[in-house]
Structure formats: structure tokens, C-alpha cells
Amino acid sequence: PFILYEDETTGMVRPYRSQELIACTARKIANDEEEAATVYYLHAPNFGAADPTVVDMSRIADIDMCNGFTWVPNPLNMKVSTDQDSGSGLWIQPSLFNHSCIANCGKYCVGDFMFVYTVLDIQKGEELTLSYLGNTPTYIKSTKQIQQQRNIKCKCPRCLFFQSHPTIAKREQDLYKEFKRIKKKFLASLQSKAAMMQFNTNELQELVNKIGKEFPQPPPEPDFYSILEYEPLSILANVYDMQKRDPDKSLATYKRLRVISRMMDGPGSIKECFAILNIALITGFKGNQKRGKEIAQEACDEFIKGNGGLFEKKHFLKLFETLPHLLTLLK
Q1: What are phi and psi of 5, to 5 degrees?
Q2: What phi-psi label fits residue 196: left (phi over 0), alpha (psi between -120 and 50 degrees) or beta?
Q3: pLDDT tens-place string over residues 70-102
Q4: What Rg, from alpha-carbon coordinates, does the chain have?
Q5: Whole-prediction pTM
Q6: Which of 11, 100, 216, 234 maximizes the CB count within 10 A of its CB?
Q7: Using an 8 Å Cβ cutoff, are 133 and 125 in contact?
């Protein structure tokens, strides 16, 4: 459970991970100056030089707030959820990665181990970064969240762009508020099939069009606005699927989702593969079964290639085994 910790230096009351993690860290560094020096090396914004001979609980709490990670499940084993495979922890090497809202690396855990992998092509000498927040849809929200949770002022290219363009940042926030209002209507429509069939997609489509038209195109970086666009498009695709009225619109929506997913998470991501599989399904539904099978195989190939050849077709099939109607295209 989260607890509240009042920082004696600033007086701020801030949520952070758990008493258990702090206690475990303290036990591990007690009577081990080398281990303590390793932990105390991590960023603690409210403390100066550390004494590795002292178990400083306040400092450990600060380190945990700025460096701890929530346990992230292996995407190939999402169904498994146990007490051992949850919670939060302090991983030393991943803690050394700087934060970026448009990070070029991702992470997942297997047991006590955290694996960091690249999600984009990395140039020689380029810094490797992780997002401490996940996908936050707007600059204003992510700035507030990273300041409260980690006491960090982000200087990634996305944040620097919005800092120098406050009007665009405000418009991004306004559009997200508009989306939340539409999303409430969508969630209400899920109460019955009749309500879903009557859900009007015009507002959602207009919102997606606004995002495409009102922000500078092309964006300074490919994924500056993609996070904002992704969720409305995902809901739009779901509605088209459930209403089954216009396969052409559904196809166009999934094609755009594929582009955005690739911007956000890199080639071969789960989001991109899901979009490709739906493109394959709709293509087959429209009468071109052969082309549908080819596109489904493309999703599998992208997944294997995008993950550096670490996974095989059997892993891809396991990942999407809850979608048998899609996987029939791969048999």
C-alpha cells in the first residue's frame, strides 16, 4: 500500500511506495558499507553527501520516491498474477536511466529481475532513457505528475517543445478534457448492446480530426502528439468493430493506430501487432482472405523482428491466444 511521507526539508506530503520496500532496503544495507554506498549513490533530491555507515531511513525513503519502480509484468505472461509478481522495487541499474516522456527504452520484470530493452533504433552515442510515468496523454498532466512523484523537471524534447509553446500545451489539455467527456458517453453506452449500437461516433471522429489539424504537422518529433491521439482512435476502432457498419472506416482507423503505435512503442510492439491483426481480419472479412493471411503473417514477422529475434511464432500465438478469430489467419 502507498503511504504518505512528509519531507522534513520541504514540508511536502508526498505519496510513495511502501514501508516494506523501505524496510527491506534498510535491512540490506545495514552493516554493508559497499551496498549502502551503491544505494546512497542514487538520486535523493533533499539530501547531500551520504554516510554509508549510517542507515538513514529518511534518505532511503527519498531514494525510493525518486528511483523505485512498480513491478512491470512480462508482456508474454500477462495472465500470471501472484503476490510474488507484484508491488514495487529498487533496481540499481535501471534507476540510473534518466526519464524521458518519449523514452527510447521499455522495461518488464520476471521474478526479481528487471529487463530493459530498446523500443526505437538507437544512434551511436545516444542516451538510453526510460519513462517513469508510462504513457501520459498531455504535457501539463505529465509535468505535474513527474514533479509530484519524482521531484523532477523533465527536459526531454517533448517537454521542451511544449514549454516553448504554451498555447499548444493549453490546447492539448483542452482537447484531452473534451475526450474525457466523450469517453464517459462511450463507457455509458457499454451498459447494453442497444446503447452501443446507437453510440454516435461523430464527436469522436471530429476530435481525432482536430488533433490532426490543429497541431503543427509534421510534429517536431514523431510521437509528440501520438499519445493524445491513440486513446480516442482506440475507442473509435472498438465502436466500429462492435457496430459493424462501416468496415472501410474501421480499416482506416486501425491503419492509423498502427502508425501511432509504432511511433509510441517502436516496431513490433504489442499495440502495433494488435492493429495489424485487426487490419488482417477486416481485409479477410471484406473478401480478400489471402491478403488477410499475408497481413497477419506480417504482424508475426514484425513482432519477432521488432524484439530482436528473442521471440518466436509460438510466443506471438501465446500473446494473442485470447483472439482466436484473428489467429486463425496464421494457420
Answers
A1: -125, 125
A2: alpha
A3: 777 766 554 444 445 567 788 889 989 998 888
A4: 22
A5: 0.72
A6: 100
A7: no
Picking from 99, 149, 157, the residue whose alpha carbon sits closest to that of residue 129 is 99
Rounded Cα gap, residues 6 and 312, in angstroms: 49
Q: Tell me the β-bridge partners of 70.
A: 88
Helix, strand, or coil (residue 150): helix
Query: Beta strands of 30-120 (E only): which ranges?
Result: 69-70, 88-89, 98-99, 105-110, 113-118
Closest CA to 46 of 55, 54, 56: 56
The C-alpha cell at 152 is 523532477
Residues 63 and 37: their CA atoms lie apart, in Å, by 12
User: For the residues of 162-183, what is the DSSP string, one character each?
Assistant: HHH-HHHHHHHHHHHHHHHHHH
Residue 154 in contact with residue 140, Cβ under 8 Å?
A: no
Given a contact cutoff of 8 angstroms between Cβ atoms, the answer to whether 96 and 105 are in contact is no
Do the beta carbons of residue 294 and residue 330 sit within 8 Å? Answer: no
End-to-end CA distance of the chain: 45
Which residue in 125, 124, 132, 65 sits closest to 105, CA to CA? 132
pLDDT digits (tens, 9 = 90+) for 226-252: 678 888 999 999 898 888 888 888 899
Read off the C-alpha cell for 229. Answer: 491521439
